[in-house]
């Protein structure tokens, strides 16, 4: 088959405009397909993992946005005394938009001494000493830094909040969409009125602790208090916060399937037209000794090449754009990163190849089974 590669390429480029339009249409469809896949992957990464399963989030009951949750900071002492609790991290949350947004910026105010133990952050620039020693210092995730064009030493503002970038960190994809500041600084920011309170507590558990039992114990402890708590595993809490987005992502899956159908229709139409244009040529090939199976394989190879070309362009552009942009969608202080990956690239190319093969089956079968005399008369 390899000796027929020049012939296949010649046929593909014989109608350049038609081929270019087909490749472009397939590329656009696979671009959208890859975006949907990246969001699904980001959602899976958000709600899975050991930290999501072995950590609890204590939030104010009957509240949905970080702005509305105000827990007394001294709750941390009582939570820390419960059986199974290893560490309690008070967190003050501030976000520029509590609704769904593609440019949400989420600040987490955390005591500096607890941040390094509670989060697996690796500084790619800046220093921890600068963060600890400066009241308005902030550690910025790489994704936020890329979107906002931030660098170490730069000051930037979101609403009433103005911070200085003390470092840029690399971490899990969801973490890279956060900005970490000192807890006291965020509590005392003008307009937040949060001195003595926090938005939530992150409770890290011992390995042998019963997650559900500790969650019930925490809520029972504060059931008669002025501020009642609602405690859930971190993964469950985050999934609940982005519940509306989950429904939207589920609907977007149908868009991804529609894109696959679009590629199938485009490539199949192009192949049918190409076969009809070369009816006489295929008849002549049969007179020269080409079998029906060989003609079938040649037409199928052309279809596969066109589909793969469109898939490679579309998926490649999507993965490259996502890797550079650091896009994420967030709501209620929880973000879902658009995650490019080798798996996404591989899946896109496999889908392109599969669609190309399916789209070419019928036209290739027709070309391989055409009667020589009938084909010559039709030409």
Q: From the helix content, strand content and strand pairing, which structural class follows?
A: alpha+beta
Low-confidence regions? none
Distance linking N and C termini: 27 Å
Overall mean pLDDT:
82
The helix content is 40-55%
Give the strand content: 15-25%
Shape field: elongated
Main beta sheet strand tally, sense and closure:
10 strands, mixed
Question: What count of structural domains?
Answer: 2
Radius of gyration over all CA atoms, rounded: 29 Å
List the helices and strands and how they pair.
Elements: H1 5-12, H2 16-47, H3 50-53, E1 55-60, E2 71-72, H4 75-80, E3 85-95, E4 106-110, H5 112-118, E5 122-126, H6 128-133, E6 137-141, H7 142-148, E7 155-158, E8 161-170, E9 178-182, H8 183-187, E10 197-198, E11 200-205, H9 211-221, E12 229-233, H10 234-241, H11 243-277, H12 279-287, H13 292-325, E13 328-331, E14 334-337, H14 342-369, H15 372-378
Parallel strand pairs: 4-9, 6-8
Antiparallel strand pairs: 1-11, 1-12, 2-10, 3-4, 3-11, 5-8, 6-9, 7-8, 13-14
Account of the protein in words:
The chain is α+β, with helices and mostly antiparallel strands and 379 residues long. It has 2 domains: 2-46 and 244-378, no CATH class; 63-227, no CATH class. The protein has 15 helices and 14 strands. The longest helix is centred in the C-terminal third of the chain and has 35 residues, at 243-277. It is elongated and about 90 Å long.
């Amino acid at each position: 088959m390899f000796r027929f590669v020049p012939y296949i390429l010649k046929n593909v480029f014989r109608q350049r405009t038609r081929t270019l339009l087909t490749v472009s249409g397939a590329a656009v469809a696979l671009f959208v397909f890859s975006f949907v896949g990246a969001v699904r992957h980001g959602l899976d990464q958000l709600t899975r993992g050991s930290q999501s399963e072995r950590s609890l989030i204590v939030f104010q009951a009957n509240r949905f946005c970080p702005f509305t949750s105000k827990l007394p900071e001294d709750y941390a002492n009582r939570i820390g005394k419960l059986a199974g609790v290893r560490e309690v991290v008070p967190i003050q949350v501030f976000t520029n938009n509590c609704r769904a947004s593609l440019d949400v910026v989420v600040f987490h105010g955390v005591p500096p001494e607890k941040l390094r133990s509670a989060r697996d952050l690796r500084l790619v620039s800046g220093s921890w000493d600068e963060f600890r020693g400066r009241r308005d210092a902030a550690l910025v995730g790489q994704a936020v830094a890329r979107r906002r064009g931030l660098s170490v030493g730069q000051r930037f503002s979101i609403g009433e909040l103005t911070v200085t970038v003390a470092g840029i960190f690399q971490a899990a994809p969801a973490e890279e969409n956060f900005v970490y500041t000192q807890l006291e600084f965020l509590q005392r920011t003008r307009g937040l009125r949060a001195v003595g309170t926090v938005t939530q507590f992150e409770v890290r558990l011992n390995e042998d602790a019963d997650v559900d039992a500790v969650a019930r114990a925490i809520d029972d402890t504060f059931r008669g208090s002025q501020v009642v708590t609602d405690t859930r595993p971190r993964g469950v809490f985050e999934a609940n916060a982005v519940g509306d987005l989950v429904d939207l992502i589920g609907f977007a899956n149908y868009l991804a399937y529609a894109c696959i159908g679009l590629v199938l229709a485009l490539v199949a139409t192009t192949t049918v037209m190409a076969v009809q244009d070369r009816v006489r040529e295929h008849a002549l090939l049969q007179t020269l000794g080409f079998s029906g199976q060989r003609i079938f394989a040649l037409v199928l190879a052309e279809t596969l090449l066109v589909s793969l070309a469109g898939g490679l362009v579309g998926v490649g552009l999507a993965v490259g754009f996502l890797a550079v942009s650091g896009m994420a969608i967030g709501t209620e202080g929880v973000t879902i990163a658009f995650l490019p990956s080798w798996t996404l690239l591989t899946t896109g190319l496999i889908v392109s190849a599969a669609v190309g093969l399916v789209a070419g089956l019928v036209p290739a079968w027709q070309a391989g089974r055409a009667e020589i005399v009938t084909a010559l008369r039709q030409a």
